[in-house]
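Following the same procedure, sequence and fold were stored together, as reproduced here:

>
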Amino acid sequence: NGTITVSAPSNKGQLRVLVKGWTGGKIGTDGKFIYTTSAVAHGGSVKFTDPGTTEYYTKDDVVGDPEVTFSPAGGTFKTETVNVTATLNETAVSGWYQVEGKSRVNIANGAASSFTLGEGMQYGQTVKVTWGAKDAAGAEFNGTATYKKVDPNATITVYVKSSSSFNMYAWGNNAAGTKVEPCGAWPGKQLTDTKEINGTTYKYFTFDDMEAVNVIFNNGSAKTADITGITSDKFFEYDGNTGYKEIQENVTPTLSVKLNPNGGDFVDKVNVTISASNATSAWYKIGNGSQVSFTNNATFTLGADMQVGQSVTVSWSATDGTETKTGSATFKKVEKPAEPEGITVYYDNSQTNWGSVKVHYWGGESASEWPGVDMAKVEGNIWKYTVPTGTIGVVFNNGNS
């Protein structure tokens, strides 16, 4: 009937009523302390046995706001198109989403809706998806997710002119949105690769899976300030201590071709994307097939007509009018590995953004030693590992927390 009746002794104590899952605040007014002295347990000496905790409440029990969740949840994509799935979280009873420039799409509670982005988009172009979700009381909450199509061939190279040896520490997010340290943990990597540009010798490092990178030059102790938001090739001069400056160089864009994946084994079928940068023309061919011309990038599927154990070579050629590059990659169809015995657990790394994920497990046929074993990345931010049969508990961590 919507009524809660609570009774308590009238001569001592304090009363507060809490209702799990109710967001309207506390009920009524806190009772007053009416001890004649400060509250104590049997004069300060505890005389009872603690029965122990029987129920725990964690951050996972907190009831959050209703929302529409997307997978992938925004960010960049390097393929020609990307498929996105929209669902309501457990708090939402109804919702909708709207791709920029298109009509609104309603989402039913417990259902999923999928859409495709990227067709007709240019590299560097973004599209915003807005959403709304209502709770049981009818209040609507709103948000957005932004997707950006990026050149799969795009790389960022940092060139450094310095008269002494130095390290470069780098950090940022990769294409999957995971925080990474491409040059290793602090103080980073000592740069040794060199390249002469316009008569100046530079040491350099190339990042090939990041849209933006941040760096610090250091000698192991003294270091520069953070150099953040590098999104294209940059040239610097480092004094070996704390000082640096950016240098302007005129560099001719170079011809490049990439395959993703670049050959290797696959199970059943594999989608391959080939991309050419700074090319006036390019083609690829599968095995002894015909040449297929493409501009910027193309995607094809291998494996449908192949037997297990069979290999096929993809050849390619590209030119910028003055230089021609050729190459190839070999793909092999293999049997699906036998599923390991045990219980497969999955971890979504999208919130923690750990560079690597470990799982510590216990209670089954065997147990791991802290901090556990490395999990395998499945795709995007999802990681997995198969723990022994009978495992009763797991803790996910990055080796530290």
Remarks:
- The chain is about 0% helix and 45% strand.
- The radius of gyration is 29 Å.
- The first strand starts at residue 68 and ends at 71.
- The CA atoms of residues 55 and 61 lie 12 Å apart.
